[in-house]
DNA sequence: TCATACTTTCAATTATTTCTGAAATAAGTG
DNA sequence: CACTTATTTCAGAAATAATTGAAAGTATGA
């Protein structure tokens, strides 16, 4: 591989890791994801360990997490007992998977929590302002939840036109 | 304040902190924000220190960060040399500020990074697949950037109706 | 102006998260 | 089944991030 290409790939992997970190995702997990995305062929855990200089355990755990997120899948080649990993190929599908997981992991729990707070706060006059604010936030979080739910269920081809329509209306 | 109301507020503050953490935001920063959101009156650094059991320095730094994000503003009362802090009141405006900041801090740098990678990768046949994948990701990140840009520029009243209308169309 | 009440900063500390490596487990092979 | 090779797990180590507290910096009202 040309030196420039190699270095460009490394740069991309690092940037993707950086971004992951900013959004609350393990940096190594994001780097593994990046590596798989730009790899033409399936990779083994050893390939990843070597490429990113991480331990076997680390590679294993992050690969599992990526599989749990639906961003990577396992693949085994016949007549080879090694396990291979392949990234979801399509960027839009990836985006949908991420939306689905974040909705489930991070929005739904907040919605429940706010609901519980509303219940616990009671209906005293004293709590009125608090309830009002909570309801306002709930509306917002629910809308986000709804949006991510929609995105999470879309198929690749369906997303782009709809998003663009939406943007036009907002312009 | 009734015991239930107090405990409901505490629960909310903790949940909000939790959520912040999941999205890559300092947990204490999110708790301070939550506290200010549900507080009727402006609070001083001392109020926050006491309420959340954090040090003066910690309170100061996280308050500054919230001000930088445009989620909180400083307010001073005449004949009182203390500084007070008030949360942005409107949840939608808050949402817009967050969109704006995250776009600036976390999407724009990734766009530049991918651009740089494309430049560095060169135009060899060997790099074709890499360029293709990068362009696909770039399209996606740019769209997200565009969406956040739109949201970040909206004013309160304008956002909700438009988003809701379009969501119905997507149903 | 200046004493003082308040705020910010930052080196040191503490807490949390992430990572490693080796042991345990599983899976494929002959 | 016994053996080999691949994978997972997890306790401890390392790295990173958050927090403290005290010194330095500011601004206000008398």
Structural class of chain A, by secondary structure, is mainly alpha
Question: Biggest interface in this structure?
Answer: A-B, 60 and 65 residues
**Helix and strand succession of chain A?**
HHEHHEEHHH
Largest sheet of chain A: 3 strands, antiparallel
> Oligomeric status of the shown chains?
homodimer
The largest sheet of chain A has its strands arranged as: 1-3-2
> Whole-number average pLDDT of chain A?
92
Low-confidence stretches of chain A: none
Radius of gyration of chain A: 21 Å
Helix content of chain A: over 70%
Shape of chain A: elongated
Number of strands of chain A: 3
Distance from N terminus to C terminus of chain A (CA atoms, Å) equals 44 Å
Range of strand content of chain A? 5-15%
Determine the number of helices of chain A (DSSP H or I, runs of at least 4 residues). Answer: 7
């Amino acid at each position: 591989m040309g030196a420039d290409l190699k270095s460009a790939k490394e740069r991309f992997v690092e940037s993707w890791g950086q971004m992951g970190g900013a959004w609350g995702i393990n940096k190594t997990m994001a780097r593994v994801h990046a590596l798989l995305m730009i790899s033409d062929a399936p990779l083994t855990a050893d390939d990843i360990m070597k490429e990113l200089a991480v331990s076997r355990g680390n590679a294993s755990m992050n690969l599992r997490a990526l599989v749990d997120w639906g961003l990577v899948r396992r693949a085994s080649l016949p007549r080879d007992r090694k396990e291979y990993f392949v990234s979801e190929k399509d960027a839009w599908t990836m985006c949908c998977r991420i939306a689905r997981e974040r909705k489930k992991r991070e929005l739904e729990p907040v919605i429940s929590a706010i609901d519980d707070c509303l219940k616990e706060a009671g209906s005293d006059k004293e709590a009125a302002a608090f309830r009002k604010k909570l309801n306002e936030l709930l509306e917002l979080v629910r809308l986000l939840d709804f949006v991510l739910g929609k995105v999470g269920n879309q198929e690749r081809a369906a997303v782009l036109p709809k998003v663009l329509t939406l943007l036009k209306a907002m312009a």
